[in-house]
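Q: Joint fold for the lines below.
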Amino acid sequence: MPPSITLAINGRPISVPPDCTIASALMRSGVPTFRHSVTGQPRGPLCGMGICFECRVTINGVAQQRSCQTLCGEGMEVETDGH
Amino acid sequence: MVTEQPVDVLVIGAGPAGIAAACEAAASGCAVSVVDDNPDWGGQIWRAQRREGTEPQAALWLDRIGRTGVQLLRGTQVVGSKGPGELTAEREGEICSLRYGKLILATGARELFLPFPGWTLPGVMGAGGLQAMVKGGLPIVGRRVVVAGSGPLLLAVAAYLRKRGAEITLLAEQAPTGRIMRFALSLPMSKARQAVALKRSLLGIRQKNGCWPVTAEGSDQIESLTLTNGRRRWSEPCDYLACGFGLVPNWELAALLGCDVRGGRVRVDDVQATTVADVYCAGEPTGIGGVDLALLEGQIAGLAAAGRIDKARRLFPQREKARKFVAALDRAFSLRDELRELAACETIVCRCEDVTHGALRPFTSWRDAKLQTRCGMGPCQGRICGPVANMLYGWSCESVRPPVLPVALSSLAETYKSRDKL
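A: Joint structure:
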């Protein structure tokens, strides 16, 4: 069994393989909406490479983290907009 | 502030151009460091290749850079310049100082996105964007994907996604069949073989040329995409849309350092030197040219930075050949006028600040539009909407201010607790 990482997404635990990004973990857990735009539109990742800033979520209490550029770590707590 | 050991050659970007530059500079006896905001070597096109190992060319160069012992400063984002010979970068919540003798910018490219109604729905991503997400762990088995837009990248993405279990509903290229066929027939033998192999990897995937997206539909995420071939429209249900219309250079760091940038490309001389002393630029930022050209430009820049001009000159004929190929490719996949007409009045152009096409259209310059609407003033600082505005309105969107990408105040505060001057 390859080692897996357990983290919490909006309070719910999820296990992911190593080298998994937070963005991919969010989508694995069935969350299409990562955040809302300035006029309240649902948004998710666009560029996948850290330049569009649409994938921002809160990781371990720190807001505005680009989830596509962050690897999952054991015990991380991830929260999307409105949670 | 953490101060890294000064190096002879500092390379920004660990994609093909950066790797090639670092290899040549190291082989010439220079102390070299490479900086990248990603966690590993490869940039975009060779992302996860150390793990997946499917590209022989990548394996060759990754092996070579591994044997040089050149250090990669991972997860490190350049903030700006402190003066000649010194950059500041953010790393693990701290600002660090990077001192160098010569600097090589290999900052790569990003995708060109063209807006159409529904393009901001979750599930709509770049072609390279969806591929990057899958490489980053997104499960794609059994998911229906439409791949649309323009360029050879679409073929590579469709082949990759299908190999990982995606159901490619449709591969939609906007360039007409005639142009693509003429280009294919003009290919030299080496390229023709590559093209045949790529075609073979796409067997069984429904492909259409001369068609493009019109609207994406769905409530919280994309559920279907409507396309047109100019005569009729039809809809394809899908879970994801991988949509890209080619690439644009990441020229911003070069501009911040004072390099001359024209038409969104960093100007370089025949040894890849920019207009700023001791600063070189290689790969996509000098003009989109793909992997082969990036490797050659990287090698030339690395050799030039190490003072080996004669060795660099020996690569000029190969670089010229690669440039001719790129020019032919550009002609084959040039974007049709209809793509400029896809945005409706209410379609968002600036995603960071939710500024619509209707709100932007009346302005005559990027600067005026920025001041009045905040377009381009959000976190992406115009990286997504700048190229759009250039295509739709003809504006030149080439201003940049430090930091080149957002940096956390906490990183700055942490670093400047002592009384260092910024």
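Q: Anything notable?
A: Chain A has a mean pLDDT of 94. The two ends of chain A are 33 Å apart (CA to CA).
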